[in-house]
């Protein structure tokens, strides 16, 4: 049974001997500024923890639930390691996505089965982000995406493509009409039995390599651009050279004349050279080897704005549920609140070094908006958007009302705590009743998981 305090409600405990491989037992092992990098991804009933080579899936709501260990096949030659994890949650499917230092994306079932493996680009995957934007006056269409962030590069996978691939894999896995050959094929599967996932790739390194980035949503095409059915996305990046940069991402590679010429001429030239080489030298036939994965070519990315303020450096970025606001932390201990549509900083906090931020929604009781019925179920309009700020150096968590509202609460937390938030659930844009955005607190020293209470009086 959950235990409620003034601002926190205890939900469960993750303590166990299998956490020693991640540094559990040492004071502050889970702290965001800890020397040992430990990755965490939270779902409504599960937690995934990862280090350089291991992913542990555990259920925090049921202490008797079996814990699953996943050891991805990593390249020892290139010292490949796990650098990002995130849950992908659909209606009846839940999987864990893993990104590596070689730019490889892997998707595993909750039982530890490899479902898909694909090379995105030959750079370290910094972050895996899941975002859903609802259709409104600014967004002509709804969009649900998985964004893969790498230094100077952003990739976007459509949520519907991932869902179709997962549905096909689970149908094949649970089918009762296997033959022996199909069983063997599935056992020997290298994670590509359902083909490569289509995606778009953009180079956003014009102002230097980024340390974090996000696709914030769909934006209109340029004013002088011919209207078409192609989409344009806005991406915000942060880094050492430019604190904040913004780009318009086009999904139509053919709109770039130089890119179109290169895409046609270069492959044809190399093909011709290879053919002549075979005719002249008559090389010996090479043994059958697995062909290298062909990487996606870059689509066009146009610069929208850039903020340089040396020696300030961008460190972390988090998006609001709609993607219209972004909270950015920098190396000077400041937090910038960015309007991603106007691309203007609308608020700033100072004195928060090594801070971590998450947007959340809270119920603030108002005399003029009290429900007429005691059985009133709060809807989206009853909640206000807030920003939770975890300042580990101060040992406090603060919640501020957006955009220019006051500080609603402040509570002390232990040094070894980490602020977490469940991943976006695909298809939740039309959820009824409305499920507000919550923030959780995981105490690494005690293993206790708590949720910040959403009701303020």
Describe it for me?
The structure is a single chain. The chain has 457 residues and is mainly β. It has 3 domains: 1-15 and 354-367 and 380-457, no CATH class; 37-123 and 157-200, Lipocalin (Beta Barrel), CATH 2.40.128; 126-152 and 204-221 and 229-273 and 295-352, no CATH class. The chain is 11% helix and 39% strand. It has 3 helices and 30 strands. It has helices at 159-174, 180-187, 257-281; strands at residues 3-4, 8-13, 39-42, 46-50, 55-59, 68-70, 82-89, 94-100, 104-109, 114-119, 127-133, 143-150, 153-158, 200-203, 210-219, 232-239, 244-250, 301-307, 314-319, 325-330, 335-339, 344-349, 356-364, 383-391, 396-401, 407-412, 417-420, 440-443, 448-452, 455-456. The chain is globular, with a radius of gyration of 24 Å. It starts with a strand and ends with a strand.
């Amino acid at each position: 049974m959950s235990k409620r305090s003034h601002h926190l409600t205890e939900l469960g405990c993750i303590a166990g001997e299998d956490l020693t491989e991640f540094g559990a037992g040492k004071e502050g092992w889970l702290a965001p500024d800890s020397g040992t990098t430990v990755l965490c991804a939270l779902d409504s009933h599960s937690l995934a923890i990862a280090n350089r080579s291991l992913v542990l899936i555990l259920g925090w709501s049921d202490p008797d639930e079996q814990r699953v260990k996943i050891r991805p096949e990593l390249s020892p030659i290139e010292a490949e390691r796990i650098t990002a994890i995130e849950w992908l949650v659909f209606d009846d499917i839940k999987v864990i996505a893993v990104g590596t230092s070689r730019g490889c994306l892997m998707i595993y079932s909750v039982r530890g089965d490899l479902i898909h493996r694909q090379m995105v680009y030959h750079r370290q995957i910094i972050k895996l982000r899941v975002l859903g934007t609802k259709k409104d006056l600014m967004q002509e269409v709804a969009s649900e995406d998985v964004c893969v962030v790498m230094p100077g590069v952003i990739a976007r996978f459509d949520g519907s493509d991932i869902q179709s691939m997962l549905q096909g894999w689970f149908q094949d896995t649970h089918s009762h009409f296997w033959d022996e050959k199909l069983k063997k094929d599935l056992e020997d599967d290298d994670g590509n039995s359902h083909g490569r996932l289509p995606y778009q790739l953009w180079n956003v390194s014009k102002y230097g390599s980024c340390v974090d980035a996000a696709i914030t949503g769909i934006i209109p095409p340029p004013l002088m651009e011919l209207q078409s059915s192609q989409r344009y996305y806005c991406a915000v990046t942060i880094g050492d050279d430019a604190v904040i940069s913004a780009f318009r991402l086009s999904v139509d590679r053919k709109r770039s004349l130089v890119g179109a010429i290169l895409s046609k001429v270069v492959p044809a030239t190399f093909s011709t050279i290879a053919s002549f080489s075979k005719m002249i030298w008559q090389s010996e036939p090479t043994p059958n080897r697995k062909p290298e994965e062909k990487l996606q070519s870059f689509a066009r990315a146009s610069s929208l704005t850039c903020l340089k303020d040396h020696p300030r450096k961008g460190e972390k970025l988090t998006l609001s549920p709609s993607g219209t606001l972004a909270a950015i932390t920098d190396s000077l201990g400041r937090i910038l609140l960015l309007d991603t549509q106007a691309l203007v900083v609308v608020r700033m906090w100072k004195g928060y070094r090594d801070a971590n931020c998450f947007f959340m929604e809270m119920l603030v009781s108002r005399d003029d908006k009290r429900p007429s019925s005691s059985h009133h179920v709060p809807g989206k309009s009853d909640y206000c958007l807030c920003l939770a700020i975890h300042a580990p150096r101060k040992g406090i968590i603060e919640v501020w009302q957006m955009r220019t509202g006051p500080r609603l609460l402040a509570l002390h937390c232990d040094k070894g705590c980490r602020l977490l938030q469940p991943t976006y659930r695909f298809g939740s844009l039309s959820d009824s009743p409305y499920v507000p955005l919550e923030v959780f607190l995981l105490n690494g020293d005690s293993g206790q998981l708590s949720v910040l209470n959403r009701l303020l009086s």
